[in-house]
Amino acid sequence: MFVPGFGEASPESKAAKNMQDFFTYVAVKIVLAQLESYNPEGYEELMDFVSKNSLNDGDKFCSGLMRESPRHRGLALRILEVRSAYIKRDFEWDNLQKLAFKMVDESNTKLMREYVLETSHMENGE
Amino acid sequence: MFVPGFGEASPESKAAKNMQDFFTYVAVKIVLAQLESYNPEGYEELMDFVSKNSLNDGDKFCSGLMRESPRHRGLALRILEVRSAYIKRDFEWDNLQKLAFKMVDESNTKLMREYVLETSHMENGE
Lengths: 126, 126
Known about the structure:
Two copies of one chain form a homodimer. By secondary structure, chain A is an all-alpha fold.
């Protein structure tokens, strides 16, 4: 479906790009949890890098991490691996869709309900 | 799959919440395009509201729009309707997944390739 205001990109590809940044964030969390238990030094190094570099742009984050030191480079490669494996094997795409449907219905109802309640109170107060 | 750092929420529900904000943005674009052709006054009003209120939090945006004036309220209801219809009928969920897989593979390759190229140049320059 054509949606105005997206230029060349479709909403689907824009959403996929957003999700990629999100998956990089998830991969960093997973790698940190793994490091914490068996490689405390790597954990400290990655935590330190995360505290100084934004994860908003996942690719920029990984690109920076690769160039920090040979040890950081190893961590970056691990993050790339994990994000690829995570989206292909672990992330529940069907569940995402189901949750999104549910969430939008609930939010729509909530927004209307709150407004109706608010105006009822106003009328009672008058 | 358990992912650390998400508290009570799963990555799927976090992603669904992000997507809801994105779908609200898409719905606003669709409604604006519809208004532009048959209701220039409504178009101006919505454009004006968009320029003054962030769309980062879709529900907050709609909540504010509902309370702006009775005419804005009509626009808000239209946006709620459109975002619900859009995610259920028009948004291509399968395509999102396909694009996300493709994008992460391409990005991973690109990041590694760029790094390899960069270090090759450095070695050639030495």
